[in-house]
Specification:
The protein is about 25% helix and about 20% strand. It is elongated. It has about 280 residues and is of the alpha+beta class. A 5-stranded mixed beta sheet has the order 2-8-7-4-5, with no helix packed on it. Strands 1-3-6 form a 3-stranded antiparallel beta sheet, with no helix packed on it.
């Protein structure tokens, strides 16, 4: 046992002298275990001590490696990684995929019915229109309802930005259009219903509400009472004015005179005596 310790001290002293002669380089310090043999007679263990480089360089290199390794490891701050905080935002508005072969949304009139005869309304009354939507996949946010007259190139607003319901309806009070700068005339009108976000001339798209302009109706202005004898129908083709009646009387009279004159002259020349 004494011999083993003496050799171990000699080897350590020799290694310490060699540390000062080593060049400054990144070296490592490796210590192998040293243990005496189980029995004194067996001699020292085959284990040995291997020392390379200086202890200061080894410690510095190890510290640098630990620092570099720690800086490479990502760290988490705040709440637990299992929780998600904040509001979730979408990348854009949701869109509805529609088969382009499908028809555009339309309108089916209920009041008056589509099979009803031509409708005429008196200016000053309240008019009710009702309808259903057909082939509508994307419901518009709001709709505009208009009445247009091509004869006077005017448009009258029945409802603006009206809400969309399963069955639509509107009541038009025409009393405000009896007089004024743009009064209603005795003419034909077209009911127009369209998406408030689109122009009336916008092209119809599959599943979206297109512009409806298929319903026409008539408006007329009330007239004051007139006695039947003095009544003259201005639009009736069978009625004759006084001038026309006098003209017809003159023509019939001239015709009769012409026939009688021809008969008298013909008889004087003996034309009828030949037969």
């Amino acid at each position: 046992m004494a011999t083993v310790n003496t050799k171990h001290q000699a080897s350590s002293a020799k290694a310490a002298e060699q540390w000062t002669d080593l060049p400054p380089a990144e070296t490592s310090l490796v210590f192998d275990s040293f243990a005496p043999s189980a029995s004194a007679s067996n001699g020292p263990s085959s284990n040995s001590i291997s020392i390379t480089g200086s202890p200061q360089s080894s410690v510095a290199a190890s510290s640098s490696f630990v620092s570099a390794s720690n800086s490479a490891i990502p760290t988490k701050t705040g709440s637990s990684a299992g929780k998600q905080t904040g509001n979730r935002t979408s990348s854009g508005p949701e869109t509805t995929s529609i088969d382009p072969r499908l028809p555009a949304g339309g309108i089916e009139m209920l009041t008056p019915a589509a099979i009803a005869p031509a409708s005429y309304y008196k200016i000053g009354d309240q008019i009710t229109f009702g309808w259903n939507y057909t082939s509508l996949i994307v419901t518009p946010t709001a709709i505009d309802i208009l009445a247009t007259c091509s004869a006077c190139a005017s448009a009258y607003t029945l409802a603006n930005n009206a809400s969309v319901k399963e069955t639509g309806s509107v009541v038009w009070d025409t009393s405000g259009y009896a007089t004024g700068t743009n009064p209603l005339l005795t003419e034909s009108y077209t009911l127009i219903i369209h998406d408030a976000a689109q122009a009336t001339t916008a092209a119809a798209q599959a599943g979206y509400l297109g512009t409806y302009d298929s319903f026409m109706f008539g408006m007329y202005a009330p007239q004051p009472y007139s006695d039947l004898g003095n009544f003259v129908c201005a639009t009736c083709s069978g009625a004759l004015s006084n001038t026309e009646r006098q003209t017809l009387k003159f023509l019939f009279g001239m015709g009769i005179i012409t026939i009688m004159s021809f008969t008298w002259f013909a008889g004087g020349f003996g034309v009828f005596g030949v037969f």
